[in-house]
UniProtKB/TrEMBL annotation:
Interacts with EPHA8; activates EPHA8. It is found in: Cell membrane. It comes from Varanus komodoensis (Komodo dragon). One of its GO terms (biological process) is ephrin receptor signaling pathway. One of its GO terms (cellular component) is plasma membrane. Cell surface GPI-bound ligand for Eph receptors, a family of receptor tyrosine kinases which are crucial for migration, repulsion and adhesion during neuronal, vascular and epithelial development. Binds promiscuously Eph receptors residing on adjacent cells, leading to contact-dependent bidirectional signaling into neighboring cells. The signaling pathway downstream of the receptor is referred to as forward signaling while the signaling pathway downstream of the ephrin ligand is referred to as reverse signaling. Coiled coil: none annotated. Keywords: Cell membrane, Disulfide bond, Glycoprotein, GPI-anchor, Lipoprotein, Membrane, Signal. Residues 1-27 form the signal peptide. The keyword Lipoprotein applies. This is Ephrin-A3. SUPFAM superfamilies: Cupredoxins. Transmembrane segments: none annotated. The gene is EFNA3. Belongs to the ephrin family.
Length: 226
């Protein structure tokens, strides 16, 4: 059987395909999970802190119930990102709406929202986070429940290796958005907000690089066929 003759560029492109499938190493962070409901006792008291690094992800899992649980017994929440005062007093006027857990009977699995703690956003109006600072999340229930306030603090610990020489100076908590954003638009603007659908496993951060890898594979197949 005659050996398959590959175009001269194909051997050089095969390693590139492998790198594309892996995605850029610096963009992959660890994932941290928080189940946002009143049965999580840590959320019911001030002081609960999740420590993350730059480029890490925080996955918020909404309350989830099977179809046999009636609407009157399920928990639903609106989550806000607030400043320190809003966190201490559970005052949603000190921030803006981030996510809404309003599908407690979602099929198969709970709704999941993900926050990426990135220094620079690919979106001109996106969120940016800074090492050495704290960020605050609280929620208000849209149901009748005795736990009126759930809250969480996130501390962004360390810079990524490319920024390891920078000194992280703790400052007043803040978040950065693009200069064109008006404060009244923040409630409706959320570039990172996933569609309300079945949750994606948190063990697969490379999913975001799949389209690029598929395009590279199709390109190689075209070369092989020529």
């Amino acid at each position: 059987m005659a050996a398959l003759l590959l175009p001269p560029l194909v051997p050089l492109l095969l390693p590139l395909l492998g790198l594309l499938c892996l995605g850029p190493a610096g963009s992959l962070g660890n994932r941290h999970a928080v189940h946002w409901n009143s049965s999580n006792p840590q959320l019911r008291h001030e002081g609960y802190t999740v420590q993350v690094n730059v480029n890490d992800y925080l996955d918020i899992y909404c309350p989830h119930y099977n179809a046999s649980v009636p609407e009157g017994r399920v928990e639903q929440y609106i989550l806000y990102m607030v400043n320190l005062e809003g966190y201490r007093t559970c005052d949603i006027s000190q921030g803006f709406k981030r996510w809404e857990c309003n599908r407690p009977h979602a099929p198969h699995s709970p709704i999941k929202f993900s926050e990426k703690f990135q220094r620079y956003s690919a979106f001109s109006l996106g969120y940016e986070f800074h090492a050495g600072q704290e960020y605050y999340y609280i929620s208000t229930p849209t149901h009748n429940h005795r736990w009126a306030c759930l809250r969480m603090k996130v501390f962004v610990c360390c810079a990524s290796p490319s920024h390891s020489g920078e000194k992280a100076v703790p400052t007043l908590p803040q978040f950065t958005i693009g200069p064109e954003v008006k404060i009244e638009d923040l409630e409706n603007f959320n570039p990172e907000m996933p569609k309300l659908e079945k949750s994606i496993s948190g063990t697969s951060p490379k999913r975001e690089h799949l389209p690029l890898a598929v395009a590279a594979a199709l390109f190689l197949m075209t070369l092989l066929a020529s």
